[in-house]
Amino acid sequence: MIRFEDIYENVKRHHAGADLEVLRKAYIFSAVEHKGQTRASGEPYLVHPLEVAAILAELRMDPACVAVGLLHDVLEDTLTDADKIKEHFGPDVLHIVEGVTKISKIPFSSSEERQAENFRKLLLAMVDDVRVIIVKLADRLHNMRTLQYLPEERRTRIARETMDIYAPLAGRLGMSKIKNELEDLSFQYLEPESYRELMQRVEERRTRAIEFIEKIKTTVAEKLQGAGLEASLEGRIKRLYSIHQKLRKQRIDIDQVYDFVALRIVVPTIPDCYAALGVLHNLWRPVPGRIKDFIAMPRPNGYRSLHTSVISDEGHPFEVQIRTREMHRVAEEGIAAHWKYKEGRSGPDKDDQAFAWMRQLLEWQQEVKD
């Protein structure tokens, strides 16, 4: 079970000098209001708000937002009321709690033709403060992590809603880490047989893939160091749902997935990104048509990176992503990283960034309608 003190220390580490008393107050308030309540797992209900707050702390959200993670269910699931929350925590925290509660009560349609309406409802709920949807995504993520304790019918309904609404929304907000986990968890419950079969096929290749990743990491690290480039390297095996989509869409075998394994290179500056790309292309032959410059042409959700695929000495293709540290934070956390970056500046700056994301989402809504 996650400990409150761990959450507190995490927030303190990323928000030096901030008033963190709101966190202790929120923890005590939530513990009192949820006393005696249990989850479907049999655990004390307090475990859930603690886990949600921990996710928000990992995203480096501000103390008020993490406090809302602790309080997000008190209006819906306890006897407390809005006046009491406002009295103890002020109008800002109350506003976000009410926004999250409002989303929880939205009746989403599962039919494709109603998707635009679903997104419109979410946009209206978050238009005043994007932290509303960030808290809701953290809430949904922990609920998906514990979905096995619910009856099958509810598992399927929640997984479908997550795959159709919350995972795409996280993607549009640039929150790829949350999007990816939501997709894999939903896939597990929506297509259990396909999930198990693909999991087995990936596991059969995992040991060989990890050995391959370690080998190329060593080679690339030496070459980058020789070129005078400071870099951190991380390898990964492609996510299950992403593999599933590629196999289904392209009608190929798993051994034909170019980016089954990938290498991520994180460097200090943009010029270093292009220098690292040159080192890679001198080391191995690039795959034609697989070089993408998302630094010069960022994705609509703000994602920036250089992508390339190369052929190893053994003839195995693999993908490489090259980005700066700031690009990596944005790639993982999306709008949460921007919120964190703007925190402490003037209010209008923060609002400008939030509304830039809102414009992107409104354009998405129009796409869905069309």
Write the layout of secondary structure elements.
Elements: H1 4-14, H2 21-33, H3 47-58, H4 63-71, H5 74-77, H6 82-104, H7 115-126, H8 131-145, H9 152-172, H10 176-190, H11 192-226, E1 232-237, H12 240-250, E2 261-267, H13 270-283, E3 285-286, E4 292-293, E5 306-311, E6 317-324, H14 325-333, H15 335-342, H16 347-369
What is the alpha-carbon Rg in Å?
A: 22 Å
Give helix % range: 55-70%
**How many structural domains in the coordinates?**
2
Distance between the termini: 46 Å
- How many strands? 6
Largest sheet: 6 strands, mixed
Order of helices and strands: HHHHHHHHHHHEHEHEEEEHHH
CATH-defined fold name of the largest domain: Hypothetical protein af1432
Q: Tell me what portion of residues adopts beta-strand conformation.
A: 5-15%
CATH class of the largest domain: Mainly Alpha
CATH superfamily of the largest domain: Hypothetical protein af1432
Number of H- or I-type helical stretches: 16
Second-tier CATH architecture of the largest domain? Orthogonal Bundle
Overall geometry comes to globular
Structural class estimated from helices and strands: alpha+beta
Mean pLDDT over the residues? 89
Residue stretches low in confidence (pLDDT < 50, at least 5 long) are 344-351
Question: What do these coordinates show?
Answer:
By secondary structure, this protein is α+β, with helices and mostly antiparallel strands. It folds into two domains: 4-175, Hypothetical protein af1432 (Orthogonal Bundle); 203-332, Beta Polymerase, domain 2 (2-Layer Sandwich), CATH 3.30.460. It has helices spanning 4-14, 21-33, 47-58, 63-71, 74-77, 82-104, 115-126, 131-145, 152-172, 176-190, 192-226, 240-250, 270-283, 325-333, 335-342, 347-369; strands at 232-237, 261-267, 285-286, 292-293, 306-311, 317-324. Helix 7 packs antiparallel against helix 16 (347-369) and helix 14 (325-333) crosses helix 15. Residues 344-351 have low confidence and may be disordered.
